[in-house]
Structure formats: structure tokens, C-alpha cells
């Protein structure tokens, strides 16, 4: 009897250990990327637009699947209007007029696609490229950390219609579920590139799930203040950041993926999978308000280069994660594969126990990285490696090829970026 119990305990331990490993990076009993994602969007044709969206949308409006819509110029959803989009609807951003869809404070987007019938925002160019059109901007009245708790976006938009910020943490901008946004993030003369998706002052009642951004000319997902939470986000070959958080954002992101390319997205200085900063301009920041705080669980961040080592040596690959001064990050059970290094901390962050407790990296899987955690412009990372290399954090380190690390990233139609537990070898020694 005693021997039987011992065998059961051993079996439970082995199963638990396997499950603990499998929980790193994106998770799911099945590949949740199936059906609704598209990793070769330039190969898909949707036909000509049959309806034009222009000017202001000031009353509740529904977009139907039977039409293809063209966003012409800056289109503002105003007057607390709700824009509802049917599953399977295609909305095209106009290249010539920088088509951009802006949801002003109080308005809502109700874009509830289906796994088998996603909503698609894409480009109207014959040969589609990153930054063909503007993107989607969603504004709310949740807190930000600027003086006066209110601000306005630039990007060549109407400042009176792009106000954001307030005191409503439960602000609800609507729903985006099973949505793809392709080739957005157009560069605006005299200001930064637009982002594929910008959430400014958006609150925690907003639902953001199963949303894919591919080939963005700006950031894929930019969260400016607010308390936005999200899961199952995908950023594919963005030019700028995949996930950016700033201006006091209080966000939780779960089970999400960022895939970068050395030749498309890795060659721009300051372009990362994840950037967490508390401010863009220190002089505009009210430090009595909350600093940016991000909780990220089960995130997979990888460079899908064919030859990561060579690309790192040639300077094409930068860091995956950047944490700015005053900001905090808690990232757990996540995978960072193929970067130089994995994480960079702002050089103003003093390396001491108090500050490092605000930057938690636990149960991580660092793979194919030239160094793991460094301070900006500092080649000596011994203190940081000793801290995060402590066994109490359960961080693992490996130098396995991406094709062995992940289940099936070579599948162009249905890639699977979950960890391939049976083929990887890891150590708790960096």
C-alpha cells in the first residue's frame, strides 16, 4: 500500500512538473490561433468598397457583412454613438486620405466577430505594406497621470475631438473580439506614426480579446493611461512596439503573442515587443498619480529570424522588453526567444531591492537571448543576473532553435507558437 501511494505521488509530481512547464508562454489545450488569424494578409483580396465612411458618425450605426466599407480621411464616432460591426464585415482604410477611425469620449465600438468569421480592417492598396492607412483610436475618461488628468492626441487629428482622461476607471469603450487590423499605422508628417490600435484613457469595462494586428507601421497596441485589460492579443511583424503602455496605464495582459522579424521590425532603435514607461514628457507628468503598472502573464515574445545569432551579431536585433523609470512590471510564465538582450531597464532605475521588487520576472523561459536582463547602456549585468537568476524565481534559460522550442512555427497557414515541451532543454542557470 505504501509503495502504491509513493508511485501515485511520483506520478502526480511528474504531471504537475509537465503542466508547470507547459504553462509558460501562450497556453491552451488547442491552438487558439486557428480559424480567425491570418499570417499572410497580403495574399487575401476582399474586393472593392461598396460603402464609404466619412466625416462624423453621430448616431448609432451598424455595419453589415454584405458590404465592404472604406474609411476615408478621419472618421469620428461622436455624440455617445455606438458603432456596431457584424461578424465577417470588412472595413478598408484609405491610403490616399490616411483613413482613420476615431471613437471620441463616450462613444463605443461593438465589434464582436466570430472565430470562424472575424471582422477585418485592412488596406486598399494593391500591394499592401505596413503603414498604408491610419488605424483605430479609442478614447475614454479613465485616469491618466498628466496634470489636469486630461490630454489630447496629436497625429494630425482634431484636438477638440481627441480629448481623453478623467476619473472613471470603469469606463466602457465597448467590445473588440475576433478582430484583425492589418497594414495600419501610417506615418503623419511632423508627428509620430499612428498606431494600429490606440487606447487612450480606456477603462476596465472594455473587452479586448482575440485581436490580431499585423504589419503595423506604428505600435500595434498602444495603451495610454486608463485601466485596459486584454487577452489573446497577437502582434505580427510590427515596425514599432508590439505592446506599449504609458501615462499611468494600469493594465493586465494575458495569453498573448508578439512575433518580430529582424528585417521588418527588429532594425529600428527603440522598437520592442513590450515597452512600459510612466511618461513621455516628465514635465507634463503628475507624480502624485499612479505610475504605469503592467501585469503580464503567459506572453510569448519571439524573433522568427532564420539565423538569430547572425542577426544579433550584425545589430539587427534589439531587446524584447523595456522598462522605464518609475514604471513597474510583473511578468510571469512568459517566453522571450531570440533577442539582444531579453530585457532592458532604464538607466535611471537604481539597482536596489526596492526597485527590483517593482520589476518582477518570475517563472520565465529565456531562450536564444544574448544576455537576459541589463541596465540601459551598461555592459555589466552581474547584479541583475544574480537577482533574477535566484532559484526562488524559477526562471529557466535555454539556447534551443525556435523550430524546436515551439510546436510548429514553420506552418505558414496555421502556425502554433505554444512551447514544444518534448523537444526543449532548459536550465535554471543563466
Summed up, what is this model?
The chain is mainly beta and 430 residues long. Helices cover 10% and strands 33% of the residues.
Percent of residues in beta strands: 25-35%
The CATH topology is Pectate Lyase C-like
What kind of sheet is the major sheet?
A: 17 strands, parallel
Tell me the number of structural domains.
1
Helical residue percent band:
under 10%
The number of distinct β-strands equals: 32
Q: Tell me the number of helical segments per DSSP (H or I, 4 or more residues long).
A: 5
CATH architecture: 3 Solenoid
Distance between the termini: 42 Å
Average pLDDT, rounded to a whole number, is 91
What distinguishing features does this structure have?
Pectate Lyase C-like; about 425 residues; single chain; globular; 17-stranded parallel β-sheet; T9SS C-terminal target domain-containing protein; mainly beta; disordered N terminus; 11-stranded parallel β-sheet; 5 helices
Question: What would your notes on this structure say?
Answer:
The model is unreliable at 1-21 (pLDDT under 50). This protein has 430 residues and is mainly β. Helix content is 10%, strand content 33%. The two termini are 42 Å apart. It has helices at residues 2-22, 308-313, 353-356, 382-388, 402-405, and strands spanning 51-53, 56-57, 61-63, 68-71, 74-77, 82-85, 90-93, 100-103, 108-112, 119-123, 135-139, 151-152, 163-164, 174-182, 197-200, 207-214, 221-224, 229-236, 243-246, 250-260, 274-276, 293-303, 321-323, 328-332, 335-337, 343-345, 359-362, 365-367, 373-375, 396-398, 406-408, 416-419. It has one domain (23-423): Pectate Lyase C-like, CATH 2.160.20. It has a 17-stranded parallel β-sheet that branches. An 11-stranded parallel β-sheet has the order 2-5-8-11-15-17-19-21-23-26-29. A two-stranded antiparallel ribbon has the order 12-13. Strand 31 (406-408) and strand 32 form a beta hairpin.
